[in-house]
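Dissemination and training. As part of the outreach component of the grant, students in the summer workshop were shown how a complex can be specified as a set of sequence lines and then modelled as a single object. The example used during the hands-on session is reproduced here so that future cohorts can follow it. Participants entered these lines:
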Amino acid sequence: MANIASQRIKREFKEVIRSEEVARCSIKVELLDDNYSQLKGEIAGPPDTPYEGGKFLLEIKVPETYPFNPPKVKFLTKVWHPNISSVTGAICLDILKDQWAAAMTLRTVLLSLQALMASPEPDDPQDAVVARQYKGFPEIFISTAEHWTNIYAGGSRKKEEYSKKIERLMGIGCNMDQALVALSGCNWDLDKAIEQIFG
Amino acid sequence: MNRKPTTASSSNSLPTDNSKNNGDEKDKGDQMFECNICLDTAKDAVISMCGHLFCWPCLHQWLETRPNKKLCPVCKSGISKEKVIPLYGRGSTNQEDPRNKVPPRPSGQRAEAETGSGFGGFGFGDGSFQVSIGIGAFPFNLLVSAFNFTSHNPSDNQVENDRGPVISKIFLFLAFALVFWMIFGL
Ligand SMILES: [Zn+2]
Ligand SMILES: [Zn+2]
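and obtained this result:
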């Protein structure tokens, strides 16, 4: 890895550890290797959002050309959000693409992701199904995102009705992830979800 | 950074935290002069019109990465090689010729004291052309100064009248030799 990249991550790592966000347990960064090219990030779901109470893990890969090019970041924790793929965790965020600037840091990236969670941009979606629900059925979107946060990120809000429908599908041979994706994508219409999986 | 030092020492049981806090305060002073790209103390420092400090090599690489969209890495205002100002600290910078470094740092612009000359900034005639041409190759600089010399010659032909032509011929010969060297020797 190029020297400037690892040198910078080393400095940034210290910056994040000392930051007040870490003191508030709002963000966290962990090193995964000795040459500072792989990190694990963690952000707390922002308050007053469906993600509140959840912990979201992120994969951070630092390219050799960092900081001239952005780090590659994706969600490891499954999340229901218009700008994050519900399947792969890929993120659609301008600063991770063409709006990247060399003075941005791990800390600003994590804070930007938190801000993205708090205010989705459905007109520039990563997950079209989620974006459609966000625009067309905002209440279902909120309860669905809360349910995902409960299952995958440790949040406390969930819907009993949703849990039962998931169990129904699991009873006929689906695994949990599959059932959740299908039901969420069909606005929790059980028949449609069954048709989608088996039809 | 996290709390006031007084409360930090009482609430934090680790003795190392105290010394670290002192280090932080010292760091804060130094951070003023840290490059916004490598986060290290700026080397061959330049400053943008928007007031942001960089190492010239760092900024150059950033501008090379996005040649079509040259924005300040901090505030995203427009930025260009021509519009950054090199910072020369006392003593340290002049010891090494910045042209020997790749990429060369843009030269300082010496504005004329009188306000009349509208051409002061560009510096074609005063030798700073050598730096701002952006190649940094030694032979090329010599070549430029050789031509400068000859062009100056006719204007002040009192003292240099006898020696001038000889030297300029030598320089011209050198220049042509270098041109040949550059064309055929590579
Ligand atoms: Zn630098
Ligand atoms: Zn700026």
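The longest strand of chain A covers residues 38-44. Students were then asked to discuss how this feature might be tested experimentally.
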